[in-house]
Amino acid sequence: EYYQVPQLAANPVEAGLVKDLFLPSAKNYSKLNNYGASYTSLNYTDKGLFYIDTVADALYFIPLEEIESGDCGKNRIESGSGEKEHGSGKKVKAKKLLTFKNLADARASKDGRFIVLTYYSLNYANIKIKTAIYDTSKKSLFRLDETGIKNGAVVKIDDDYYLAAQKFHSQNKALCIKKLILKNNHLYKTEELAKQELGLNESIISICGIEKSGRGLAHEQELAQEQEDKLQQVLAFIKKEGLNYSIQFCNLQGKVTSSYRIKEKGMVLRDLSYDSGKGQLLFSCTRPGSLPQLGCLELRNLGPGGLERGSLELEGGLLKVWQENI
Fold first, then answer.
1. How far apart are CA 247 and CA 103, in angstroms?
2. Minimum mean pLDDT among 8-17, 61-70, 312-321: which range?
3. Rounded to two decimals, what is the model's pTM?
4. Cα separation of 109 and 210, whole Å?
């Protein structure tokens, strides 16, 4: 079937639709973008922004105070050098946290302490996918021994941290949930709490945590009595079953407490994140005849009409969307 490609601006920065990450005040692409600098796995946390520089094979961090202070339109971020020129003329550094070869993805906890790293290990006859967890407060790296764990996310509930991920074992897939065990405030092992097997045609595309403390869904006094069971929802994930997509919600035992099925034929979802300010999920969605757009789903409205799509279409589409009031 033929789909009409929409007419889009060839250069969205020049058209004023977006800002260049490396030089937001520029009216055209920055030198770093023109030279092929690239970043992936953008994460917004209470501490600031984390992202992977694929050219430098490194994980970078931009403190929240640098985002909040001054005129963000004049800020300058140079990923490779880590140098950033503030609107006031002050030069600071986007800190390199670590260099990591074959790094595929990174996902940070809401408080910014733990970052789940998915990477490819070449130390086998066949390439294996593995997971490590970086502790930003202790500057330490913990590697999980088992292979086949991907799409991981860490959620903090009260004072404890939990890892949720998709695990491949033999020809099977499962949603696994592990508790991070700390000793003297250092991560030293994980303890499996639950493993929910997936069907042969099922897979998990993206996982994010829904933290109850603070804002958004956390205002328990505002919830109706019949919604109290949903307070146990601490995780959300995009589930693909054949060609069909849905957004599932579950507790720490991996039990699905509610779900939202995507009814529109041909719609594809990816890159799930939680907007705690508005109590909604954000994601990238694509339907036939469109490029990836912003999608959002309010947790209080999982009925018909609960899903909304943005109207902005950009060349290449919108991926890895995060939103906070900063």
1. 27
2. 312-321
3. 0.81
4. 10
